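#struct-help
A.M.: can someone run this one for me? Single chain, 470 residues.
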Amino acid sequence: VSRGAKLAAQLLAFGRRQALEPKVVNVTRFVRAMDDMLRRAIGEGIEVETIVGGGLWNTFIDPAQVENALLNLAINARDAMEGQGKLTIELGNAHLDDDYAKAHDDITPGQYVMLAVSDTGSGMPPEVIDKVFEPFFSTKSEGKGSGLGLSMVYGFVKQSGGHVKIYSEVGEGTTIKLYLPRAMQSEDVEVATVIGPIVGGSETVLVVEDDTEVRNTVVEMLSDLGYRVLKAVDAASGLSVIESGILIDVLFTDVVMPGTLKSPELARKARERLPDIAVLFTSGYTENSIVHGGKLDAGIELLSKPYSREALARKFNHVLANQRQRKENRAAMGNVGSSVATIAERVTRRTILLVEDDDLIRMSSAEMLQASGFAVIDAASAEEAITAISTLPIDVLITDVNLPGMSGPDLARTARAQRPQLGIVFASGDLTAVATDVPAVQLPKPYRPTHLIASVERALAIAEAATTSD
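D.P.: on it. Structure tokens below:
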């Protein structure tokens, strides 16, 4: 299964159809961090030299794909050198001018970050160079490679708006240069993920998937995780199940489906009949009705294919936690005045920045905070929140962990860099994804108004204690 998932991911990368998770990064950090792994992968017989130019620019790319690309290039270089030789990794700033762009296809003139990998191997003749980025083409003997490594690198770079150039001479070696577009923004701060145990549930899930093998596999994985699973072969039959009156907690549907009824319309009709239903889409393609320009439409939950059992479990935990939070907020809104009146008397006018991509959770939680005497600024994404942090006096940041674009922990690190005494609350159904090096109050979803206010007060107390100690 894992090999098949890797194969599918590589094919999607070549076709420029994988859903990337780009961030503003400085590639130097990734190359340095991969040094030990690269040396283990290529063996002791190969000397590794890394050359980093001064003042390297940032670039907007998917960090995981950069690491995969560098590892693929290093392994190809190792095989070309048959375990003996020198591997040179070079990073530098580059400007591709109009003349260069005219001489090559699909290139926009401008500033790029160049990542080059050179080897002292056997090199390649021109007829091989012309085919080296084609899927399943390989210079290795049968059984020694899938022929997808370089095609994956090519597809990822092109999807990221970059350019790939290869130089090779028989008997001398090969250099492959990746040109990644320069980003003018400051670097996003990476936060290490804490991996916890895989946890399932007991809710009822409707799986809508037209591929029989995929459907059977998903049903088996969800059943093993404890869920009660219903299944449908297309959107129309999925709607029939929903209209039957069976209580369904989660609609898990492929985006690209046969028939006249499409998945987004199925989701809309499902929410009309079952307002509390959680909807999770899945797709292996970025060019569909819920992903545009490689980014998700607002308010959409997507699990990209191929996915592991662990990824499936964690995504379900996330969407179900949000579903429970929406129910909790609706039930609590009628009692907000009485339940928090005493708390409101103790609150001086503090400003809370609430970051949550689920509209209902964000609005109802903001009302709870306002009823307790807090001033509330709300944002649907980390990018919106950063603007508020830069311009407004914020006392406490409350953020979901799983946000579109920059994650909640990334946002917290960025916010702390600007406001060291800022109180932080992480609100999520998957708190295992929060790095322990980010001092914060953890608020599990679903939460009640009193839990929300208590978490804010704890965050304020922590921030005030830190100020006093300074």
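A.M.: thanks! Residues 204 and 228 are 5 Å apart (CA to CA).
D.P.: also worth noting: The mean pLDDT is 78.
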